[in-house]
Structure formats: structure tokens, C-alpha cells
Write a structure and sequence with these properties.
Largest sheet: 6 strands, parallel
Number of strands: 6
Number of domains: 1
CATH topology: Rossmann fold
Strand order of the largest sheet: 1-6-5-2-4-3
Oligomer: single chain
Radius of gyration: 21 Å
Structural class: alpha/beta
Order of helices and strands: EHEHEHEHHEHHHEHH
């Protein structure tokens, strides 16, 4: 299945602060409603965020989770496996991070490391990463069949924009921690990674878990579109109407507040 590609339409005018903050707040309110529906209806979801270094995954996660109840989600920043995890099947550590009913798990990078960094850097053999595509597809199909949504976003930026953001991080005291030697090694292998990305989309954009590619050179536009996409996919086939008050709770409220309490809910 071809991935869904979100591209910004050309505009002569930059996005105003007012419009940007208004749209972000609108999406955050909708995400709050969705989370409440998940909590009461025992829905669950996995959000996978992959992308080019400095494409904006962290900024998107902050804006996604800003208005959410921390009891209803977990963010998992994925780095290299530990020594003990290296002795397990590579998917095993992700099983431990899957969401309980009523919650969602957000993965900042994911099991796709098997067919990306592990492939490029030689941490997995050719046979291991080659069969990784089908193993991942089966893993995600199992989750979807069990009632868990799997939403996959890939944030992409141009080589020129990545260079600009790297320089910005070097000169910005509060952003320097984000830049590592690994970022520069990955940049040197950009062509290899682009080939791996293309193969990943080709092999793992499925009917049950398609890829959504967000062109992210414009941070503000990409955040709004990514949030809008998350709202759409997280709410798909989910009843967002609030539950009525529990009759037992209502009866108890009448005793506390009086029989004339208006049943307006």
C-alpha cells in the first residue's frame, strides 16, 4: 500500500502566530476528548514516530501530550538496546511497552530500527534485517487484530533544512543537548538512509498500518497537519460522546445536594 504523503501547499504569506496557536489549541482540545473516550471505552493505540534527524519528532510529541492526562499515555524514547536486550528477540522490548486498555503508547523511534539504523550500521545481518519487514508486519497485524490502533508517522525534511537546524542547535544553548555525533554520522549516510526509508515504506505500509509521511521543512505547518492526522486516526471508529452519569452516582448526588438537583447531564 502506498504511504499517505502530506505536502504543504505553496503560499505567499507566512503562517501568522494567531492562526498557528489557534489550530494547535484546537487539535489539543480534540486530543483531550479522544483520550477521555479511550479511558472510558477501553480503547488503546500505538503511535509510531520515525523520521530524519531534527525533523521535529520531539516538538510534535510535546504539543500532542501537552493537554493529555499523564495517566493515560506513555512516551517511549527508543535508543540502542541494552546488553540484556541484545540477548532477546529485537521485538521483545517493545512488547513490554505496549499500551494497556484505555491508554496509548507513543514511540519516539521504534522497532523500525531493525530495517534502518541496524541495517545501515551493520548491527543486524542481511538475513536479520531482510526478514524484519515481514516480522514487523505480523507484529503490527497482531496488534490491530487485537483492537489496538497502530498509527505511523514519518517526518521528513530536506538536506538543506536539516543543515539549518543542526547549525541552530549548535548556537542555541537550550538546544545543544539535542545534537550528537551520531546525527552527523547519519547525515554522512543520508543517501543510504533514504534508500532504506524507501524500502521500509514499500515493504511495511500496509492496509492495517499504513505510513503517513509529513513533509516537515515548515515546522508550524507540519505540526498542525500531523496533529490533525493523529486526531483523525485516533478517533476513527471511536465513540467520542461522553458517557451518561452513573445512576448510582446520581442518586448519591441527590442525597448530598438535595432532591431538586437538575439532571442535565
Amino acid at each position: 500500500m502506498e504511504p499517505n504523503i502530506l505536502k504543504q501547499k505553496k503560499s505567499k504569506h507566512p503562517m501568522s502566530d494567531e492562526y498557528y496557536f489557534e489550530k494547535v489549541l484546537e487539535m489539543q482540545k480534540k486530543l483531550t476528548t479522544i483520550q477521555q473516550a479511550y479511558l472510558v471505552r477501553k480503547e488503546r493505540a500505538v503511535v509510531v514516530l520515525e523520521g530524519v534527524d531534527a525533523a521535529g519528532k520531539g516538538g510534535l510529541i510535546r504539543r500532542m501530550t501537552w493537554a493529555l492526562d499523564p495517566r493515560g499515555f506513555q512516551v517511549w524514547p527508543i535508543s540502542a538496546p541494552s546488553e540484556s536486550e541484545k540477548k532477546e528477540h529485537y521485538l521483545q522490548r517493545f512488547w513490554r511497552s505496549l499500551p494497556r486498555k484505555g491508554t496509548m503508547s507513543i514511540f519516539d523511534r521504534s522497532w523500525y530500527g531493525r530495517v534502518l539504523v541496524e541495517r545501515i550500521e551493520g548491527f543486524a545481518s542481511h538475513d536479520e534485517w531482510s526478514r524484519g519487514y515481514e516480522e514487523i508486519n505480523r507484529f503490527e497485524k497482531l496488534l490491530v487484530d487485537d483492537g489496538c490502533k497502530v498509527i505511523k508517522l514519518f517526518l521528513d525534511i530536506s538536506n538543506k533544512e536539516q543543515e539549518r537546524r543542526f547549525k541552530e542547535r549548535l548556537t542555541h544553548p537550550e538546544k545543544r543537548w539535542k545534537l550528537t555525533t551520531e546525527d552527523f554520522r547519519n547525515r554522512d549516510k543520508r543517501q543510504d538512509y533514504e534508500h532504506a526509508f524507501k524500502k521500509m515504506f514499500e515493504k511495511t505500509s500496509t492496509k492495517w498500518a499504513p505510513w503517513h509521511i509529513v513533509r516537515s521543512d515548515n515546522k508550524r505547518w507540519s505540526r498542525i497537519e500531523a496533529l490533525r492526522l493523529l486526531v483523525k486516526e485516533l478517533s476513527r471508529n471511536v465513540d467520542l460522546e461522553p458517557l451518561p452519569v452513573n445512576p448510582e452516582v446520581y442518586e448519591m448526588a441527590k442525597k448530598v445536594f438535595g432532591k431538586n438537583i437538575v439532571k442535565s447531564f
